[in-house]
Amino acid sequence: MTKLRASITGVGGYVPEYVLNNEELSKMVDTSDEWIMTRVGIKERRILKTPGLGSSDMGSQAILQLLEKTGTNPEDIDLLVCATVTPDQPFPATSAVICDKIGLTNAFAFDLNAACSGFLFALNTASKFIETGSCKKVIVVGTDKMSTIVDYSDRTTCALFGDGAGAVLLEPTTEDEGIIDSILRTDGSGRTSLYMKSGGSVSPPSHETVDNKEHYIFQEGQTVFKAAVSRMADVSAEMMERHNLTADDLAWLVPHQANLRIIDATAKRMGLDPSKVMINIQHYGNTTAATLPLCLWEWEPRLKKGDNIILATFGAGFTWGSMLLKWSYDGDKVSK
Questions:
Q1: Which of 178, 213, 247 lies at the terminal end of a domain, its last residue?
Q2: Of the residues 84, 92, 298, 314, which has the fewest C-beta atoms closer than 10 A?
Q3: How far are the Cα atoms of 163, 178, 303 from residue 5, in angstroms, in the given order?
Q4: Taking Cα atoms as reference points, which of 303, 58, 72 lies closest to residue 170?
């Protein structure tokens, strides 16, 4: 029997128009462009300022662009998986809201939360529906409005995050392309090093939790940095070793955009020239579940059929992983 693989056949992306740069941020909190650039490499980030709009709206825009670029009818989509840590509401799922907004009437949909690893985990999950033959067209979208959970009086975290969304279309292929392999990991002992303290069933919202600013991102910076550097690099190198790949065999590394030093350490461990590493953290910051698809979206015109690409990520949980895929089309032939 011919083996089916899930192949990415299109990419869409969306970032809000409003740009919050380091100069403006330094007027809100005790920080500076030099301090931020030295530590994380972020120059600016996009913020969704329009009242009443949330993660579903950004995700919808990314998917609508994806559908138009690929000439896909919304009614032909079998499944939508939405990776997010900032859902519009606790329920219904943001994926269901997106389905309603863009007319996905024949799809089933669900959300997946693996923090900054969300898109990679969702991509792996969605690929299984393709590989088993149960779905023929699947959309995976990563969308996060991180500005809603950022404390802009906390200099240690407020410079890190931005808002955005990215989406891909998965379709089956019997060619030597598509998603080849993935390595996914979780270490729950890191769960108190990067998290939101309140708002869930253990500590529901109250006047006290709001007053104590417990509905914002809490992070032990050094702990997270050390874990991210070692584990994201380790799992990327493991993927190369598993498939006997050298740096020359790889066209691109697509790393989670959390910190430029983490990205550099991962590329160095893999022996990759910086020219093979997708980096847009300076423009968008950490958009959590949207970082990987936004990189693919931005670099799409430079991607060639047959390119070997490794995606790598690390996030709260702790969660981390890598994925090897072989690109299925020439991106420069896709109309924007």
A1: 178
A2: 92
A3: 31, 6, 19
A4: 72
SS3 132: coil
Closest C-alpha among 31, 59, 22, 82 to residue 281: 22
Could you say which of 99, 116, 135, 295 is catalytic?
Answer: 116
> Can you tell me the distance from the alpha carbon of 285 to that of 292, in angstroms, rounded to the nearest whole number?
12
Q: What is the pLDDT along the chain (336 residues), one digit of tens a residue?
A: 578 999 999 999 999 999 999 999 999 999 999 999 999 999 999 999 999 999 999 999 999 999 999 999 999 999 999 999 999 999 999 999 999 999 999 999 999 999 999 999 999 999 999 999 999 999 999 999 999 999 999 999 999 999 999 999 999 999 999 999 999 999 999 999 999 999 999 999 999 999 999 999 999 999 999 999 999 999 999 999 999 999 999 999 999 999 999 999 999 999 999 999 999 999 999 999 999 999 999 999 999 999 999 999 999 999 999 999 999 999 998 855
CATH of the domain at 86: 3.40.47.10
Active site residue 286: yes
Q: How many domains does the chain have?
A: 2
Say if residue 233 is in the same domain as residue 253: yes
Same-domain status, 221 and 288: yes
Same domain, 198 and 147: no
**Do 42 and 152 have their domain in common?**
yes
Give pTM, 2 decimals: 0.97
DSSP-derived 3-state class of residue 295 = helix
Q: Which of 82, 135, 158, 256 is catalytic?
A: 256
Domain boundary residue among 149, 178, 207?
Answer: 178
* Domain boundaries, position 16: 5-178
Question: Residues 303, 252: contact at Cβ < 8 Å?
Answer: yes
Helix (H, G, I), strand (E, B) or coil at 157: coil
102 CB neighbour count, 10 Å cutoff = 20
Catalytic one among 124, 259, 286, 295? 286
b/e map of 8-32 (b: 16 or more CB within 10 Å)? bbbbbbbbbeeebebeebbeeeebe
Respond yes or no: is residue 116 known to be catalytic: yes
